[in-house]
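Sharing a chain and its predicted structure for anyone who wants a worked example. Both blocks are below, sequence first, tokens second.
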Amino acid sequence: MKRLLIALPLLLLSLNAATAQSKNEMETLFHRVADQGDNFNISISHDLISDLDFDFDFQEYTEEMSGHIDRIRFVKFENYNRGLKSEKEFIEQMLAWGYRQAQIPSDWEKEEGQAILLRKPNGKNSEHAAIILNNPNDRNAILIVISGDLIFKTN
């Protein structure tokens, strides 16, 4: 019983440390890709936003996001090609962390450009979500990172 009483606080401390490390890793990753060149980027903290529910609609495909948002980061890459390269680096790291790409219908992409949504698999809380929007016609490359305690449901 004494072992359990000692192990429980240690477990809770280690979980808290893992969450803090993940937030620091995302901060480092975001700045590594956003601070390359003359990009416009902004970060909005939880003081300016409250609990929000988002629906990402891509024709018949809907991705519902609910939960508590701590921070939203946004970057519009000035150089389209450099932006694509930075986004690729960002995606590779998020996939390595266990995030997965939501399947957006190809019809939507043909009309609007490329859209990528990265989040934890269905049913799991996601500490971060990334939305990547690329339009080759307008030469726009945009990365949005939402951080908090996020829950996704696909319809």
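Comments welcome. DSSP finds three helices and seven strands in the chain.
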